[in-house]
Design a protein that fits this description.
The chain is of the alpha+beta class. It contains 4 helices and 4 strands. It has one domain: 2-Layer Sandwich (hypothetical protein PF0899 fold), CATH 3.30.2320. It is about 75% helix and about 10% strand.
Length: about 200
Amino acid sequence: MDKLQELTQKLYNEGLAKGKEAGEAILAKAQAEAEAIVKQAREQADALVEQARKEAQDYKTKVEGDVTMAATQAVQATRSDIENLIIAKAVDAPVKDALGSAAFLKEIISVVAQRFSAQESADLSLVLPEKMQKELEPFIQGELAKTIGKGVEASFSKKVAGGFKIGPKDGSYFISLTDESFQALIGEYLRPATKKILFG
């Protein structure tokens, strides 16, 4: 009986020891797996945080670039507006006054028509401001036609505020000497000097 009890106790102790070892092995494996899962989760979380940080930095850089470009364009547009305003103030009124004067316009038309007729064999055609028809029509048909020794056809248009357009009578082309073209031409000459005075 003692032997049987001793054998039972031995088997029990061995089973208990094996069970304990197996349990510890399972527990160790579970802990290792848990640590691996935690480590992987931390790595993924770190990667996500790093990606979010990079995307935020990229977005910040893009926004800063967009803001800088918008600010630069706004400054350039403002400078251009200031230049245009100053040039317009300096040029528009004097040009309109000069090209709105019938006497001055007669002088310019005479000079241009003579130069034009020296190079062109065709009769001339002029487009003049409608508001100056009474003052200019007799001059065109009389004095100018005699001076250049060729036929001159004149039409008067509301679209021409000041100055005139000149070309061959066949209408193949016109040279614009209107107040708008003079303003643009003089403005282009003044622009570099105006820019230097204003902005250095």
